[in-house]
Design goal:
80% helix; 0% strand
């Protein structure tokens, strides 16, 4: 069983690396190392804003359907509509982000470029140069923070629930126990 898990992990890793490896072959090594190197933009990059907006609006519609018409859809229908809406909403919001990164990086990076000198300008320019990479990094950071926050909230909720359940079952103000 352990060998199957290891080989499936390797298989998933190889499959996940195929597309980036294919993209990497389209740019010469000298161009990749150059200061002003910009990655090749795919065909879908132009449609990202339009498609993202369509998915975003569709996600809002599905989410609203799940929340407002939940009783008439049944439990399974409400769950499918709500989860599908959230998924479309997340994907639709994430797709046009690389288009917005240069504008946001200029605004947010202005104080760093102005007051931190050359390192601040380099950081701002690096974020602007490859918006897809910047968006991917920000998305990974956002997901990590969301997971940590969700686990912290879940842990706190479980602790409060356990304490309240114990207090509701024991009617006394003090409990003696031997160790």
């Amino acid at each position: 069983v352990r060998r199957e898990r290891r080989s499936s992990g390797k298989t998933v890793t190889v499959i996940a690396g195929l597309l980036p490896a294919a993209r990497a072959t389209r740019i010469s090594p000298v161009e990749a190392v150059r200061e002003g190197a910009t990655p090749h933009r795919g065909r879908m990059a132009r449609l990202a804003s339009v498609l993202g907006t369509i998915l975003f609006v569709g996600g809002i519609a599905l989410l609203a359907l799940g929340m407002l018409k939940g009783g008439s859809l049944g439990v399974a229908g409400t769950l499918v509509a709500s989860l599908g809406g959230m998924l479309l909403l997340f994907i639709g919001a994430a797709m046009p982000v690389p288009v917005a990164v240069p504008v946001v990086a200029r605004i947010v990076g202005w104080p760093a470029a102005r007051f931190a000198g050359i390192p601040g300008r380099l950081a701002r320019d690096n974020a602007i140069r490859n918006p897809g990479r910047t968006a991917s990094t920000a998305a990974a950071l956002m997901i990590g923070i969301a997971l940590v926050s969700a686990i912290a909230v879940l842990g706190r909720s479980l602790k409060i629930t356990a304490v309240e359940a114990t207090e509701s079952q024991i009617g006394s103000s003090h409990v003696l126990q031997s160790e």
